[in-house]
Amino acid sequence: MAKPLTLDTIKDLPADIRVPSYARADLSPGIVHIGLGNFHRGHQAWYLHRLMDMGLAHDWAIVGAGVRAADAAQRERLKAQDYLSTLIKLDPNGKSAEITGSMIDFVPVEDDNAALIAQMADPAIRIVALTVTEGGYYQNGAGGFDADHPDIVHDGAHPATPKTAFGAMIAALKRRRDAGHGPFTCQSCDNLQGNGAILRRTVVGLAKLSDPDLADWIDTNCTFPNAMVDCIVPATGPAELTLAREFGVVDMAPVTHENFRQWVIEDKFCAGRPDWDLAGATFTDDVHAFEAMKLRLLNAGHQIIANPGEILNIETISECMAHPTIRAFLRKVSLTESAPHVDAVPGMSAEAYINLIDTRFSNPEIRDTVRRVAFDGTSRHPGFVLPIIRDALAAGAEVDGLALVEALWARMCEGTREDGTEIAPNDPYWNDLQTAAQAAKTNPQAWLDQTRLYGDLGQNAVFAKAFDRWLRAIWAGGATAAMQRYIDA
């Protein structure tokens, strides 16, 4: 019979479940992490947990935090199980389970973020890390800081009672500066090229709206390391809850993950850090090359297959890879149009990485849904796909397949599949996307005229012509025929 997951019951779990070798009483906080979703618990928290298992980093335990209503529900789930998490590795050669205990608390989620500010102001906290999604950094269409967003306007006018995680960080840093406690490292763990630099721009830009002197202090004293993070971690649903019970654990928020992790970090920590490299992370002075490879091949690759998958009513990424046309489409675009704009990294060429992606995406144990991967295209296409197109056009290189990728996204956003079923809203800007996509059925340029997404790229004659041709072909003959035409060319 499965046992509820708590500190009291952990000793009674089945012997084949790996449990922490360290005691909770031996841990003290060093990190506040904002955004306690599956990815953080299956990635960054795991690295720290494995360090703690080695008898190290016991003064770096994680205190969870969040600023959304959903975070309050997550807090209650995790609090009920003493902040322990069940991680289930979905290896085609056999599943395994592990309990992680590197998180020791979760601050109350409040409208004014008072508890979060107080926790981050504690001098014991030396790192504040975030996983708030690619679209959570208040960037405008040009990629700069969006000072006009209502949340930012509010925090600029009310710095002591902020709505955003960034406003809370600034309020905490003000307390630390005024008390002489010094700064903390601000660490982004989201899939963004130059995520540390983007976080710096957001925090410093917001601070300038209310306290330019504090903004200068933050810019001078805090560090914002860039990092590349990688692990496929599906959302948790009934199947994942059942799987945990099959292992003998009643966990209300288990995490499933693939048999691969990577974390490449710029070693810039103003107040110290755990030795994550002893658990398999990589510290380097050149994160950019690792970031570019992952974002342009893996993250862009997800968009290449998820949009046609949704159009064809395919449920999971591994099932997309079982579709011969989608798999061949991904491989040709990646090898011929993306890879030329990706540099090799130590031990890995672009082609070898594409082969690795093929294996990872094809893992049938990972039920990573097409819907999850296709979510928030307004952040993911500008972040992952459009930079490749811009670089290719600047180099006079081929963009035909990448134009087809964008045309497939436009087709998906029309809101119906080829079998006539409805695609439920799947983007924060779904209404705008659907309006543009429906207009683009007869006038493809209407899609590219979304300057918030495409800027001046939509006016590029080479790209616009290819996009026009492909979108018309998709509507005339279907997504599969269009992809096959590209593959055969």
UniProtKB/TrEMBL annotation:
Pfam families: Mannitol_dh (PF01232), Mannitol_dh_C (PF08125). Residues 286-475 form the Mannitol dehydrogenase C-terminal domain. Residues 30-277 form the Mannitol dehydrogenase N-terminal domain. Keywords: Oxidoreductase. InterPro entries: 6-PGluconate_DH-like_C_sf, 6PGD_dom2, Mannitol_DH, Mannitol_DH/Oxidoreductase, Mannitol_DH_C, Mannitol_DH_N, NAD(P)-bd_dom_sf. One of its GO terms (molecular function) is oxidoreductase activity, acting on the CH-OH group of donors, NAD or NADP as acceptor. This is Mannitol 2-dehydrogenase.
